[in-house]
Structure formats: structure tokens, C-alpha cells
Amino acid sequence: MAFKIKENIVWVGKVDWELRKFHGEEYSTHRGSSYNSYLVKDEKVVLIDTVWGKFSSEFVVNLKKEIPLEKIDFVIANHAESDHSGALPELMRHIPDVPIYCTSNGVNSLKGHYHQDWNFQVVKTGDKLSLGSKELIFVEAQMLHWPDSMMCYLTNDNILFSNDAFGQHIASELMYNDLVDQAELFQEAIKYYANILTPFSALVDRKIKEVVALNVPVNMICPSHGVIWRKDPLQIVNQYLQWANAYAENQITVAYDSMWDGTRQMAEAIAKGIMEADQTVAVKLFNIARSDKNDVITEIFKSKAILIGSPTVNKGVLSAVAAILEEIKGLRFQNKKAAAFGCYGWSGEAVKVISDKLKEGGFQLLNDGIREKWNPNIESVDNCIRFGRDVALNLK
Fold first, then answer.
1. Does the N-terminal peptide bond of residue 145 adopt cis geometry, omega within 30 degrees of 0?
2. Looking at 42, 83, 188, 268, which residue is catalytic?
3. Which of the ends of the chain has fewer CB neighbours closer than 10 A, N or C?
């Protein structure tokens, strides 16, 4: 499938309706995804990115239907990750001498992936490539989200090919932001940011401001995954600026795992206390072991505070809780508060283990947490309700 974005620009990517996991098994893609590749035709012809390697043959066959491969003058590799560059080996087998434009880190990454010494042309921010009546201007975007990442801007058409920035994992035949379900679009956009770009928020903020300072018009943003932003394309740029600056809504997320329902009962009692003290705050509860971890992380990203609970198991915590604590530590959330809770039978270390991990992850601890022995009785439930009330009052 190919379709015209403009008279001289054709989308030649792949919509992957079946995809349910990305980055190995790390990221859930409930709505599939797309691998966006763009063919720009001017006096010179340039191909911007390819598709995931498993679709290499299909990609090259379809590309041949759009243009004889020998008429491609340049290839742009905005990012070497294999969902973007995976079809390069099959493509370059047909056009081995065509130059590939990428960053210096891109050369290292592409060689590391494919062990080929193609005709690499290194570019940096501000470099230009003439296509005839228009130019591509390159903008390095190091660590957004790999060291080799870059974007490119097409003059005259005023299109930013933004690579992973501003993308979403959505499979759709309606390839523009104004045509798809807006709730789904922004759910996937914030999930993408929360789970992938959060650790680089300071760089996101700086890079966006750097691009804005170029003072160039942007009529369209073409990311590497999901839909193209053509209606008010800067709305997603402005949204990224909000997400990059210690983003939080009026929400508290309570996330836990439980062996015999004791910690679940605590979680529900704590939530009750929060709602009694503040009826304006959104409270969301998740059993971590039974919930999609990327969805939970998205809710943590949206929250001003989180409460994490686990019973004590072998002087530690349940594995699902340990895993998400490790994950959120790496994401380096900013300006969020937290506390721990859990029940125990005899030793009771879980609350301290959780508190220490939250502190390592940059969360400001609201208190020392709460633990209750054995299955919560009426007194324990009342303690948890009071704990929830205190949390809510401390956050007002």
C-alpha cells in the first residue's frame, strides 16, 4: 500500500495490524502500529527511513511499484533501530552505491546492526541536502531516544519528518490525526511518551525549543509510527512541552499485588480514605500482576502521587511489584510523591523495600508507609482509611 501525502510525497510504509508487543516483550501495542517510510520526489528522489526487517521483501516489492529503485538518489536513516532500518539490507542489495545520510552515531549503529559498509554520508544539525527545488535540513536529536536519532525538515512543503518524536503505536488506514478517534490518538501518544521518552524529558524540552527557534513554518509532522499530524500539527509539539515539564494531573495511582487479598483490602481502604478527604482527585487502582504494565506506567506518569503495595515475601516484595519498581526507577519521573503499604505475617520488610526503591527512583516520600499484620481486621482497615485521608490532605 502507498498513498500520496502531497503530489510529490508518498507514504510507502507498512501498517502492522497484528503487532501486540514492541521492543521485544517490553511495550504493549493494543492497537497495532505502523512503520512509516516516505518517498520524496523532486529533481532528486529521496527515501526517508524503511520498515521493520520482517517486512523487507514486501517493502521493496511495493517500493518498486512506486518508483524504479535505480531512480532513488538518496536514503535517509533518521534512526538505526530495526523497526526503522530493518529493510535496508534488502533495499541496498538492489542499490548498493546509493548514499545513506545519517548521524555519526547512526553509522556506528547501522554497522553494528547489519555489518555492512554502505556509502554512509554523515550529517549534523543544520546540514542541508538539495533535492532540486527544495532542501532537506537535518536536525540531530541525540537520545530522543537513541544516540543516533535525528529529524529532517523539508523546505517549501514545510514538513518535519520527526522520526520517533510525536509518534504513537496505532494501526489505521486513516493516516491523519484529524481522521482517527481523538481519544485513542491521545491515549497512545501519552503512553508512548510516558514509557519511552520520559527519561529524556529535559532533552525533549531543549530540542523542541531549538527547533522552534529556527522559526520555520511546520505544515505537517510525519513521525515514524502512527498517524501523520496535518491538522494543527503543532498541537502535539505543545503537548510534548507539557509532558516534558514534570507533568502531573490531579490523580493518585494505587498499584499493588497481593497473595491472599490482604494487600488488596489495604489498597481499597486507602483509596476510600483518599476519596473521603478529597472528592476532586482521580484515584485509580491497579493490581500490577493483572494489569498491562505499560498502561500502569502511563497512569503513574499522569499522577501527582503513587502508592505502591506488596505483602512481604522472603524479606522482599512480589515479583510484579519488584519489576515495576525497577522500571519506574529507570524512567526517572520528576516531581512526584509516593508512599508504600503492605501486609505481612512475621518479618514485614516489604514496605521499607518499596520505600527505598521509590526514593532511588526520585520520588519524594510522603511518609514511612503503612504495614498491617496478617489479614486486615476492622482496626487495620480503619488505619488504612486514615492513611489515605492523610495522603490526600498532604497533597492538597
1. yes
2. 83
3. C
Q: Are 168 and 193 in contact (CB under 8 A)?
A: no
Contact in structure between 185 and 230 (CB atoms under 8 Å): no
101 as an active site residue: the answer is no
Is 97 noted as a catalytic residue in this protein?
Answer: no
Q: How far is CA 256 from CA 90, 268, 287, 318, 321, in A?
A: 46, 10, 5, 9, 7
Q: Which of 81, 90, 140, 299 is catalytic?
A: 81
Give me the catalytic one of 16, 35, 38, 79.
79
Asked if residue 205 lies in contact with residue 238, where contact means CB atoms within 8 angstroms, the answer is no
pLDDT digits (tens), the chain, 396 positions: 678 999 899 999 999 999 999 998 889 999 999 999 999 999 999 999 999 999 999 999 999 999 999 999 999 999 999 999 999 999 999 999 999 999 999 999 999 999 999 999 999 999 999 999 999 999 999 877 778 999 999 999 999 999 999 999 999 999 999 999 999 999 999 999 999 999 999 989 988 888 888 788 999 999 999 999 999 999 999 999 999 999 999 999 999 999 999 999 999 999 999 999 999 999 999 999 999 999 999 999 999 999 999 999 999 999 999 999 999 999 999 999 999 999 999 999 999 999 999 999 999 999 999 999 999 999 999 999 999 999 999 998
Integer angstrom CA distances of residue 327 from 125, 180, 295, 330: 32, 31, 13, 5
Helix (H) or strand (E) holding 237: helix 234-243
CATH (residue range 252-395):
3.40.50.360
Q: Does residue 225 carry a catalytic annotation?
A: yes
Q: Where are the domains of the chain?
A: 3-243, 252-395
**In the annotation, is 90 catalytic?**
no
CB neighbour class for 67 (10 Å; exposed up to 12, middle 13-18, buried from 19): middle
Centroid of chain to Cα 64: 32
Is residue 286 a contact partner of residue 233, using CB atoms and an 8 Å limit? no
- The residue from 27, 90, 140, 145 that is catalytic is 145
Which residue in the list 16, 49, 90, 164 is annotated as catalytic? 164
Q: What residue type is assigned to position 204 of the chain?
A: V
Looking at domain 3-243, which of 3.40.50.1110, 3.40.50.300, 3.40.718.10, 3.60.15.10 is its CATH number? 3.60.15.10
